C-alpha cells in the first residue's frame, strides 16, 4: 500500500454552534490525520466539498510547506487567518482557506481529499439528522 493512502479525513466540523456569522468562519473546519508511519508532503493536494448533485463547488489547495509526520494533523479552517504549525501531542497545522463565506453545508456535506496527481485519497460524508 502506498503511504499516501494513510492520510485520512478524520472530522468535518460543518455546522458550528450558533448563527452562521462571519466571526464563526474559522469554527468551520476539516481535520486530516496521517495514520501512516512516513512523513508525507501535502504540497499540491486538494480538499473539495460536494453538492447533493455531486458537483464540486469549493477547492482548497495545500501550500508547498505542509508535511504531516506520523499522527500529525492538519486543521483546514474555512475563514481567513495566518497558517501556523503547533507543536504538541499530536502536533498540528492550522491552515486557513481564506474564504469569506461558509463552505460546508449545515445539513451535511462530503469532503474529498485528492493527492497532487488528482487521485482520490479519502472521502468523508457528514449528515445532520433532523429531529422529528
Written account of the structure:
This protein has strands at residues 7-13, 29-34, 40-41, 46-50, 56-61, 67-68, 73-77, 84-86, 92-96, 108-114, 120-127. It is mostly beta strands and 132 residues long. The protein has one domain: Immunoglobulin-like. The protein starts with 6 loop residues before the first strand and ends in a 5-residue tail after the last strand. The relative contact order is 0.26.
Name the descriptors.
single chain; 132 residues; mainly beta; Immunoglobulin-like
Distance between the termini: 44 Å
Mean pLDDT: 90
| Shape by Cα distribution | globular
**Helix/strand class:** mainly beta
Summarize the structure.
The chain is an all-beta fold. It has strands spanning 7-13, 29-34, 40-41, 46-50, 56-61, 67-68, 73-77, 84-86, 92-96, 108-114, 120-127.
Amino acid at each position: 500500500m502506498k503511504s499516501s493512502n494513510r492520510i485520512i479525513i478524520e472530522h468535518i466540523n460543518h455546522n458550528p454552534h450558533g448563527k452562521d456569522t462571519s466571526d464563526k468562519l474559522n469554527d468551520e473546519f476539516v481535520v486530516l490525520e496521517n495514520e501512516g508511519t512516513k512523513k508525507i508532503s501535502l504540497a499540491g493536494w486538494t480538499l473539495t466539498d460536494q453538492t447533493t448533485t455531486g458537483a464540486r463547488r469549493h477547492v482548497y489547495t495545500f501550500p508547498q510547506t505542509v508535511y504531516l509526520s506520523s499522527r500529525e494533523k492538519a486543521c483546514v479552517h474555512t475563514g481567513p487567518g495566518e497558517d501556523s504549525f503547533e507543536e504538541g501531542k499530536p502536533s498540528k497545522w492550522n491552515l486557513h482557506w481564506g474564504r469569506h463565506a461558509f463552505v460546508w453545508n449545515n445539513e451535511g456535506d462530503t469532503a474529498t481529499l485528492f493527492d497532487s496527481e488528482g487521485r482520490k485519497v479519502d472521502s468523508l460524508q457528514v449528515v445532520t439528522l433532523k429531529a422529528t
